[in-house]
Amino acid sequence: MQRNTSGTLMCIQPNTPEYWMYKFRDTALDTVDSNNRTSMQTFFVSWISIVSSIPSVTSIILSTFYGHKVRTRSRLLVTLFVVFLCFIVFTGFIEINTDSWQLGFFILTMLVIILINTMVSLFHASSMALIAKFPPQYVQWYLYGEGSSELVSAILQIMSLAISPSTETSALIYFVVGTIILGTTLLLIFVSKYSPLMQYHVHSDREDMDTKRPVHTIAEIAATLRQIWPCILLTCVMYLTGVATHPNITTLVVSENAGSGSEWSDKYFVPVITFLGTSVTSLIGRFIAGSLIMKRSNQNIWILVVIVRGLLYIPLEMLCNALPRHHLPVIFRHDWQYAVISGTQSFSGGAIYNSLFLSMQ
């Protein structure tokens, strides 16, 4: 059951760039122009990263200290239900004209996304606490599920665009299906307690005892950190270097033939290259990295690889055809160049992430 539901929250993250570009367009022109994006269009994804970071980190810290006070299954159900409600809100606003209060809608969107990401962080922490009760190979399948969820999201995004030429209708399809996926996952988690596999590995009596345990002390957490600090440090570096480019910059990259009227360049380029391509290569990297484990003997090599990777891909992505731009030149203008850069970045990222998580076991 956990294999099938892992990563579902990643699947329904609001990755519909065309819809958000339309919502925050210049209403005086009533068009979406890559060369003349409004500040809300340009910095929408960046603001998501900024406003979500502190709540997400805070929720993880609170979960570390106090998470065991609440049953894991209850945490999963509550967090998923809150995200389910948030997606109902997003779905409802698709048909509402927000042109007259764009700034207010932008702020409201940020607040809802903060809530979503906080719940996602708690959900992931709770999922890892649950999966830790299972044999070690389940952690690997959990990571595969997390990676494949991004693939499902990208496919859903492309299908919604193909079904309807209207930006609002395609967004409606995307969010409705995403809400259905959330509801289905919520139901699966609820009935999972009847699964023999779940009953075998997760004992209610043991969970009741866990909720009565005292809060973890700083000394206990410090002792654990001393054992896995290289993995945590490199994971943080991977996150910081990754979020600096994807999706903050990559969602702004356009095709070399943008504006030509071609469906590929104007409609499918970002969903296919930026989301589908990166999710496929990341998933391949996760599968290949199953046997790569960081040890004390190769720790320095891992640190070097992660640092060099970050220093390499940040400037490469910035020199792609991201619009609007005011300072840096476009060096990698062709579509295939951007595809290679983003693909190799996500491939290496998926492989390293998977290896680091498996190394913490």
From TrEMBL:
Ranges that cross the membrane: 44-64, 76-94, 100-120, 171-191, 228-249, 269-289, 301-324, 336-358
Compartment annotation: Membrane
Keywords: Membrane, Transmembrane, Transmembrane helix, Transport
GO cellular component, as recorded: plasma membrane
Pfam families in the cross-refs: Nucleoside_tran
Annotated membrane topology: Multi-pass membrane protein
GO MF term list: nucleoside transmembrane transporter activity
Protein name stated in the entry: Uncharacterized protein
Species of origin: Aromia moschata
